[in-house]
Amino acid sequence: MDAKEAIEWYKEKIAVNEAFHLHGPQNDAAKLALAALMQQAGTTKVPKGGDGEELFKLMQENPELPVLPMVDSEVVCDDDYNRWTGSWGSASIDEYLAHDGRVFFRSDDDTDDVLGYVLDGEEYIKMTDEEVEAAYNALPWVKAIIVNIDTP
Q1: Nearest Cα to 146, choosing from 42, 80, 54, 10?
Q2: Per-residue pLDDT tens for 90-106?
């Protein structure tokens, strides 16, 4: 598949998602991928502000990685509208774990917080240091490009 075919594929994917009201991180990632492909093909410009350029560079260098947009809580201040503007924040490659509506990042290296949330409290307290390390490393971490969406 060349870039032109990929652009058309992403346009169709986004159109189908919009038609069926399928919104969320996967659709956002498709929009970001489409923007990166269009920028690479010279049909649009890279968004300015924050580390938008770094995001697109990471996407081009790591096309196999999913993109996880992390929206700052201050972007959505109320329930009066369906959409809000944000600005590109920092972008980096990291591993994340999504569990019961909460997202943890491996780079935070907060074993106690992660395992304390994921495991039963009594089970976790009884673990040896070696068991803690093994349990932490065995979690289903997902390598991804993490982009922060900040206030404009």
Answers
A1: 54
A2: 889 999 999 988 999 99
